Amino acid sequence: MRSRSASAADLAEQGTDHSVPAGLAASLAQDGPIPLAATLACAPGELLALVGPSGSGKSTILRAIAGLYRPKDGRVTVDGEVWFDGAAGVWLAPHRRRVGLVFQSYALFPHLTALNNVKAALGHLPRGDRRVRAGQLLELVHLAGLEGRRPAELSGGQQQRVAVARALGREPKVLLLDEPFSAVDKATRQKLYRELAELRRPLRMPVVLVTHDLDEALMLADRLSLLHHGRTLQDGAPLQVLQRPATVEAARLVGQRNLFDATVLEHQAPPGFTILRWGGRVLEAERNPAHPVGAAVSWMIPSSHVVLHRRDRPSRGEHENPVPGVLTECLALGETTSCVLAVDGRAELPLAFSLPSHVAHRNRLAVGTPATVSLLASGIHLMPRAKRDVSGA
């Protein structure tokens, strides 16, 4: 069927699709010019972070939801209303989608005051009601008293609040935020994080945040969708994606450094371990029978689950997968020291971990000194063997 724009009659005939849940659901697909193979869902009151490196398709997906970009195939629904269906030829024009969109640059009208910038989004209201409603929205984002200032007279954080107020003025069914914190300093960003967390509680609408900052996503999001080259690699709770990535590719994208290869030797139940052979060593990991005995796997462990054997007193878990080596990196970064241990002195088995700088100083850690760490079994996560080589044997 030839694609066409959806008219009011089309939508009335189409009605509400009760086969999809409330909130936002999208699946987008095309081979080019921008490759897309992405799926996402965001429930009312939930904040979903789209995370990935530059060029991963985050902003393109946001624009497709808003109707500013038309992919070749896929489907977008909000509360059961179909905004896009490539197979059926349905395409709802951007102005007919109840979307609040905050751009990275805020896109405020420079010649208008904060109040009039918000009023510009209130064309659906009677003219006499717009000023009062704009004032209410500015008060909601903590800008009461600044209604008469133009964008050049506002700080970056204040401009961002005006942009949010304007986006909410459309009474949206979904709020889309495209890297909204990137243009402000760190102190302002921390304040805006808190304000967004407070603001979204009463909104009860899906909120989709595009960010390349994993820490930002961990702080703000209920769920995280990890993207690469327009493709959804993994979707889930932020800590789950960070500490239990589905693939080595996903692990690398979330910044995990401790990636190795091993072979599954056996599954023990009880005590509930999967036994691995790695680099000539035998390790205990949490039991994971999804990987059969004899399987070649990749595995990772977060830095937080690598525990130093201290010289001044025994460490917790010293009996758990003790691994000796030589420090090849010991870099003080303020209150935290970043270390790399060459396991058994082998440079091809670099194990990264961090610890408080005062602990590193007390244990006299330095490049070239021997050290022993424990790898906590609860942190060892198994994945399918990577196509590209990672460290191990």
Number of domains: 3
Q: What's the β-strand tally?
A: 22
Percent of sequence in beta strands: 25-35%
Which bin fits the share of residues in helices? Answer: 10-25%
- The chain-level mean pLDDT equals 88
Rounded to the nearest angstrom, the radius of gyration is 25 Å
CATH topology description of the largest domain? Rossmann fold
Number of contiguous helices: 10
Assembly annotation: single chain
> Considering the protein shown, what is the CATH homologous superfamily of the largest domain?
P-loop containing nucleotide triphosphate hydrolases
The level-1 CATH class of the largest domain: Alpha Beta
Alpha-carbon distance between the termini? Answer: 54 Å
Query: Which CATH architecture of the largest domain is right?
Result: 3-Layer(aba) Sandwich
Query: What structural class is derived from the secondary structure elements?
Result: alpha+beta
The biggest beta sheet, please? 6 strands, mixed
Strand order in space, largest sheet: 7-8-9-3-10-11
The best one-word shape is globular
Which spans have pLDDT < 50 for at least 5 consecutive residues? 1-16
Write a structural description.
- It is a single chain.
- With 393 residues, this protein is α+β, with helices and mostly antiparallel strands.
- The chain folds into three domains: 163 residues, 3-Layer(aba) Sandwich (Rossmann fold); 59 residues; 73 residues, OB fold (Dihydrolipoamide Acetyltransferase, E2P).
- 24% of the residues lie in helices and 32% in strands.
- The protein has ten helices and 22 strands.
- The chain has a six-stranded mixed beta sheet with strand order 7-8-9-3-10-11, sandwiched between helices. Strands 12, 13, 14, 15, 21 and 22 form a six-stranded mixed beta sheet that branches.
- Helix 4 packs across helix 5.
- The chain is globular, with a radius of gyration of 25 Å.
- The protein starts with 7 loop residues before the first helix and ends with a strand.
